[in-house]
Specification:
two-stranded antiparallel sheet; mainly alpha; 60% helix; 2 domains; Multidrug-efflux Transporter Regulator, Chain: A, Domain 2; Helix-turn-helix transcriptional regulator
Length: 251
């Protein structure tokens, strides 16, 4: 199903509630918590899309199967909405770049050198320092790695090395567990989405850079094409010089 079709609001609240086996009042509660974002008809009637239905089923899975509390669900759905919005931004940017290419607009600014590692992703902290920075026991960091909540790098000697981004992730895990009371299953879902969001954003930026480079290359190619030659051979360059004509007449 195309992305725009999945976002089309079509189901009234009673039908949406039946599709996900929930009470309509529960859907209203989830909307107030901004877990879902139904559309509105011209008469202000709530209308739910296929994507809303998917989100509601995910909420039910988190709460009923994984036992995630509402604070954890809010974090999961916030990240899911960010992913949805990022996809929309990416599609809009692709459309803008395609328009720019079609209209033969001015060449973009020079691009930054691709392939450079973000300084925040550079692995620099050994596990003892990382644990001290986030006020956790090193064994806790090892547990979070086994759960794939964080993904530290390795030195050539296989020593764990944590980046600034890993430190941010560990602080986020501590906030979720200690401040919001989210269980480990909920934290796993949240961090999975965080990794997915960061990966999607990085991929989008890479795709946009490649498209911009393609535009630059094509624009450069258009500017360096040779001038078209007159196929009939009667252009100014094909006419004999006056001196040549006069010489031939006197022979």
């Amino acid at each position: 199903m195309p992305a725009d079709a999945k976002d089309r609001p079509v189901y009234v609240i009673s039908v949406a509630a039946e599709l996900v086996d929930m009470h309509p009042q529960t859907l209203r509660l989830y909307e107030r918590k901004r877990l879902i974002r139904p559309g509105r008809s011209s008469g202000k009637t709530r209308l739910y899309s296929e994507r809303d239905i998917e989100h509601l089923r995910e909420i039910r899975r988190l709460t009923q199967e994984l036992g995630v509390n509402l604070a954890g669900v809010e974090e999961v759905m916030r990240l899911q909405h960010e992913l949805d919005d990022l996809q929309g931004e990416f599609e809009a940017e692709i459309e803008r770049l395609e328009d720019e290419l079609r209209e033969q607009a001015a060449a973009p600014q020079p691009l930054e050198q691709g392939g450079r590692l973000d300084p925040r992703d550079r692995p620099v902290y050994v596990i003892s320092i990382a644990a001290e920075l986030v006020d956790m026991h090193p064994q806790t960091l090892r547990l979070y790695e086994r759960k794939q909540l964080i993904r530290p790098g390795r030195s050539s000697g296989k020593t764990r090395l944590y980046s600034e981004r890993d430190i941010d992730h560990l602080r986020e895990i501590r906030r979720l567990t200690q401040e919001l009371g989210v269980n480990l299953a909920g934290v796993e879902e949240i961090m999975r989405l965080r990794h997915q969001l960061e990966g999607a954003r990085s991929q989008m930026e890479g795709n946009v850079r490649r498209l911009q480079q393609d535009i630059t290359d094509r624009m450069t190619g258009w500017r360096t094409l040779p001038a078209p030659q007159d196929e009939a051979g009667d252009g100014p360059e094909d006419d004999p010089a006056p001196e040549q004509e006069a010489g031939e007449l006197t022979r």
